[in-house]
Amino acid sequence: MNGDKETKIVLLVEDEAIISIIAAKALKRFGYDVISAKSGEKAVELAIANKTINLVLMDINLGDGIDGTEAARQILAVREIPIVFHTSHSEREMVEKVRGITRYGYVIKNSGDFVLNSSIEMAFDLFNANRSTEKIMNAMRESEEKYRAAFTTSPDSININAMDGRYIEINDGFTKLTGFTRDDVIGLLSTELNIWARPQDREKLVDGLTENGFVENLESLFRCKDGSLKTALMSARIINIKNEPHILSITRDISERKQYEENLKTKNEELEAVNEEINAAMEEMEATNEELIATTENLEKSESRYRVLLDLAVDGILLGTHEGIIIDANESICRIADMPKESFIDKHITMLPFTPSSLEKSPFRFDLLQKGETVINERALIRPDGSEVAVEMYTKMMPDGTYQSIYRDITLRKQAEEKLGKYQLLLQSCLESPKDMSILSIDKKYQYLNFNTFHKNIMSKAYGADIAIGMNLINSITNTDDRKRIKTSFDRALAGDSHIAIEEYGNAFHKYYETRYNPIVNDKNEIIGATAFSANVTERKLYEEKIIKLLAEKELILKEVHHRIKNNMNTIISLLTLQADNLEDPIAVRALENTGSRVNSMMILYDKLYRSADFTNISIKEYLPSLIDEIVSNFSGSKFVKVEKKIDDFVLDIKKLQPLGIIINELLTNIMKYAFNDETNGTITVSATLADNHVSLVIKDNGIGLPESIDFKNSTGFGLDLVLMLTEQIGGKIKIERNAGTSFALEFDV
């Protein structure tokens, strides 16, 4: 846990109990003590009252009450403490909103323990670095003198300007960064040098100095003397020199780091699975690169100013004689090497515990120092416990023959570079894992960004192309039809359309490939390229064609079967009708007619099922209206009867729908036979509703009414007995109501 001697306490603010428990366990595994809060108000109370809390891990959405961003503002208004947001929000607007509150971190939930732990460690490092920087800047403000040697040898650019912007003094770092010499700039305005590539950067600097008297970590784009552009991180504040206000600016060149970040983003966009860890590595590297070398300048040297600057500098500093004997060391070099100051004094520089391999790679160059050059090396120091720390050294010989060497701890940067290398290997491993899938990515000019071996072999076999990173994919395809088809698909992806295409590829092998095309989008939501994942689906395509043919044959068979069943049912109805015509017994005739009507209702249901996409379920709204009309129209008096249908649209399975059709047939047949006198106008109302899986069916007429002596348990015919049996079959209940006619109310559950 960053080598801290005592356990740090983290305030975990999370309103979801399960997420809070999981996060707390992870934090304890990292070695932290955890205090939990479920609301923003409680988090503010604890963070202000308990000064032992070292960091706040804050969710944004906290239910009722204030959210995480407001809680963070209230806490920061009272005390300085690192706050890391832990949330499911990844929208750009939310990130910008949080950035305006704190810059100590923003972690997406479920990013993994490594990302969470790295983000917390980074927040502590950044917090400590900011406090160290503030101490140094405060010490610098309290003194009116400067240490000229540190000003001259600083690898960062340092310049002093009058309040109107005219250059008063610059160091060698300024010349190294911009190419402008002292003679080029002294007495001139920065606008006269046209050094600001983005005018808004200068406006931010002026606004910050005007409002606060200082600006920290302002990322700016500068135009060098040769016209080239460099990105740098700038901090500035107003200081007094001889009781006159001046502007002191310290600027660090981060162009290489910016390019490094762009390259890393490209890799992130190619493999989303490792995106969060790569971002963490970038943030770790950024945290180490944002340290400031505390220096200033004035007109005369001062031992008191020298000691403040030496002891408070973030980077390690060694001073030596012309012969290479160390005569002074600051606290930072003691911390970096984990050695007391006495271990450095009176020791020759060559006796420091550098690793043999780093000395072999970067040997001592006293010859270059004696020529006045600044020597920059990367070496590794061996600490007393045997661990190694990577350092970047800036060494320069002073005019009096002494030398000064600045040591910067670059261990985290080296670790980040090593992680990036591993992530690149992981990316390539992921590309090569599918042995039967072609994977590639291109930029907006169709130039290869990456591809796997399977794709390379296909391009060689199909088109005789020996492809490489940077080559143009479209120009490598020799088949005209394939080239046109692939370009069209990639153009869709580059326009933002993620899609899947099944394509047959030309003369070489006539294979079907299913390809998933997707755009590559950067953190600015700009499309910078596209990916394609292709799998050979030739065998599947042939199976699909065979299945389509079999389905067509099945459809023909079903049509023939349906035709025969309908003919058989019509034949049954016709036979019943003929038999009824040949009978004189009215009871037998009615029995045959009723049976024919029941068969007819079954035939209507079957026809609806056949025409439906689902053979086991059918919409009652599609079935009942036609069944009702068919039953009523079979009676000669139907023209005097008005039928009102109020049928909801819901689905029933065939096991309930078939008995229901026969029940409706029996009840409507009974109404048409007995409810109305001859040529008397009547009304039949049929309603069907579904509520809470409960079906209610009501059939009502305004006829002469059913006698009180007849009910389902006391019936003179088979019809009502059949209705009761079918009602019990579907698990329902039915009742008769006599009020201005007769009403049958059937209810059952589905």
Distance between the termini: 61 Å
DSSP E strands, number = 27
Order the strands across the largest sheet as they lie in space.
2-1-3-4-5
- What fold name goes in the CATH topology slot of the largest domain? Heat Shock Protein 90
Question: What is the CA-based Rg, rounded?
Answer: 43 Å
Number of domains: 5
How would you summarize this macromolecular structure in one to three sentences?
With 750 residues, the protein is an alpha+beta fold.
Could you explain how this protein is built, in words?
- It contains 25 helices and 27 strands.
- With 750 residues, it is of the alpha+beta class.
- It folds into five domains: 9-141, Rossmann fold (3-Layer(aba) Sandwich); 143-253, PAS domain (Beta-Lactamase, 2-Layer Sandwich); 315-415, PAS domain (Beta-Lactamase, 2-Layer Sandwich); 434-536, Beta-Lactamase (2-Layer Sandwich); 589-749, Heat Shock Protein 90 (2-Layer Sandwich).
- Strand 9 and strand 10 form a beta hairpin.
